TrEMBL record:
<feature type="domain" description="EF-hand">
    <location>
        <begin position="118"/>
        <end position="153"/>
    </location>
</feature>
<feature type="signal peptide">
    <location>
        <begin position="1"/>
        <end position="30"/>
    </location>
</feature>
<protein>
    <recommendedName>
        <fullName>EF-hand domain-containing protein</fullName>
    </recommendedName>
</protein>
<dbReference type="InterPro" id="IPR018247">
    <property type="entry name" value="EF_Hand_1_Ca_BS"/>
</dbReference>
<keyword id="KW-0732">Signal</keyword>
<feature type="compositionally biased region" description="Basic and acidic residues">
    <location>
        <begin position="133"/>
        <end position="143"/>
    </location>
</feature>
<dbReference type="InterPro" id="IPR011992">
    <property type="entry name" value="EF-hand-dom_pair"/>
</dbReference>
<dbReference type="Pfam" id="PF13202">
    <property type="entry name" value="EF-hand_5"/>
</dbReference>
<feature type="region of interest" description="Disordered">
    <location>
        <begin position="133"/>
        <end position="165"/>
    </location>
</feature>
<dbReference type="InterPro" id="IPR002048">
    <property type="entry name" value="EF_hand_dom"/>
</dbReference>
Length: 165
């Protein structure tokens, strides 16, 4: 009976750890999987461990396969991680991911930096794509559906569209 309780407790802890790792992985490290939910990366790591260990995984193997970044964050903060510290780390990771995507989208030279020339080059490219009749002006009818719809944002045709710069 005591052995059964230990197994149940260990199983519950393992599932709790999976849920926690998945939640942290989803929010902070969405780049690990194409779906952005962190599950593919975890599944790949667990499949590798299972393959390397003849189809079974011990808790120690499971723990080693999980993302160690959360454990490192706890260790780096004196063995405890507050909501504020975790939120700051998640926010930083999210904004770093956004910054990487923006740099990749605008960086014309591919050197990992963003310059005013890169921004202008990107704007010219997008403008040219929107100016379908090549008259040097974008008319409302040339805007993509969501942007060019009447009453966008609760306004009317007479509203100033300066927010679309």
């Amino acid at each position: 009976m005591q052995q059964e309780n230990i197994v149940r407790k260990t199983t519950k802890l393992a599932f709790a750890f999976i849920a926690l790792a998945g939640a942290i992985g989803t929010a902070a490290y969405a780049d690990e999987s194409s779906r952005g939910d962190g599950r593919d990366g975890m599944t790949m790591r667990l499949n590798k461990v299972m393959k390397d260990s003849n189809g079974t995984i011990t808790f120690d193997q499971f723990s080693d396969a999980m993302d160690s970044r959360l454990k490192k964050m706890v260790a780096d903060n004196g063995g405890k991680l507050t909501v504020e510290q975790l939120a700051d780390a998640l926010e930083k990771a999210r904004f770093e991911q956004m910054a990487k995507r923006i740099i990749a989208r605008y960086d014309a030279k591919g050197d990992g930096t963003l310059t005013a020339d890169d921004i202008t080059a990107r704007e010219k490219k997008v403008f040219a794509m929107l100016d379908r009749n090549n008259d040097g002006k974008i008319e409302k009818s040339e805007l993509p559906g969501r942007i060019g719809q009447h009453g966008q944002g609760g306004g009317s045709d007479n509203d100033d569209d300066s927010s679309m710069q």
